[in-house]
Design goal:
Largest sheet: 5 strands, mixed
Strand order of the largest sheet: 2-1-3-4-5
Radius of gyration: 20 Å
Structural class: alpha/beta
Shape: elongated
C-alpha cells in the first residue's frame, strides 16, 4: 500500500502568544526556540521579533511526533516551545529536566510548565527501572506500524539486553495499534519495556504493570 505524506502548515499567528511571553517577562536573555512542523514556515518571523527585543535566539528546529531535537543539553536560559497542548512541552521537560515556556498560538496565551509538574512521571519511571532489575519475566513492546523505522531499528538493542540478562525471559509483542487492555491477557509479565512511542510512559498508569522505555535502560548503561 502506497503512503503519501503531506505537509499541513498551520495558519495560526504565532506572535500574539510570543508577545504575551515577553510581556510576562518569561523569556530571559537567551532563548532556545522549538516548535512543531506545522509552524516552521513562520518561525523565523518569531526569531526576528525576539532578537529585536534584545534576546539571543537559537532555533533548535521542529519536533516531529514524539521525536525531540537530538541535543543532550540546551545552554540557553529559556526554552520556548511554540504550539498548542502539553504533549510536546511535557516531553521536553522529561528529556531535558528543566522548565519550558509555552506560547500557545491557539489560545494566544503563554505560561511556564515547571519541571516539578512532571515529577509523578519521573517517579513512576524510577519504580519501573527498579522493577526491571528484579523481574524475571519481561515483555517487550515493538511497533510494526508502517513508517516507524526508527522505532523498529531498536530490535537489535533489545537482543543485547537478552545477552546481558540471560536470567530474564523476554517476550516480544508486535502491534500496529496497541490495545492496552489486551496486555492484561499476559499476567505473568512483571514489567514492560517499550520500544514503541516513548511518550506512552506519560499514561503508564493505564498499564497493568510497570513500564519503561528502552532509552531509560540505555541511560543506565544497561545496553
Amino acid at each position: 500500500m502506497k503512503i503519501i505524506h503531506l505537509y499541513a502548515h498551520s495558519d495560526l499567528e504565532l506572535l500574539p502568544a510570543v508577545k504575551k511571553a515577553v510581556e510576562q517577562d518569561l523569556l530571559k536573555e537567551s532563548v532556545a526556540l522549538v516548535t512543531t512542523i506545522q509552524h516552521t514556515k513562520i518561525i523565523l518571523e518569531v526569531a526576528e521579533f525576539l532578537s529585536k527585543q534584545g534576546l539571543a535566539v537559537t532555533n533548535y528546529g521542529n519536533i516531529l511526533g514524539c521525536m525531540h531535537p537530538k541535543v543532550a543539553e540546551i545552554p540557553e536560559k529559556t526554552l520556548l516551545y511554540i504550539g498548542d497542548g502539553l504533549f510536546h512541552p511535557k516531553g521536553l521537560c522529561l528529556r531535558l529536566k528543566r522548565d519550558v515556556v509555552v506560547a500557545n498560538p491557539a489560545t494566544q496565551q503563554a505560561f511556564v510548565l515547571k519541571k516539578e509538574e512532571i515529577a509523578d512521571i519521573e517517579k513512576r519511571l524510577k519504580g519501573a527501572r527498579l522493577k526491571f532489575h528484579t523481574a524475571t519475566q519481561v515483555g517487550v513492546l515493538i511497533s510494526v506500524k508502517s513508517g516507524q523505522k526508527t522505532v523498529q531499528q531498536t530490535v537489535p538493542k533489545i537482543m543485547k539486553i537478552q545477552e546481558k540478562y540471560p536470567d530474564k525471559k523476554f517476550y516480544f509483542f508486535g502491534a500496529n495499534t496497541l490495545d492496552i487492555q489486551s496486555l492484561e491477557d499476559f499476567p505473568f509479565i512483571e514489567v514492560w519495556v517499550n520500544t514503541m512511542c516513548p511518550r506512552m510512559v506519560d499514561d503508564d498508569v493505564k498499564f497493568p504493570k510497570p513500564m519503561l522505555n528502552l532509552m531509560d535502560l540505555e541511560g543506565e548503561n544497561i545496553i
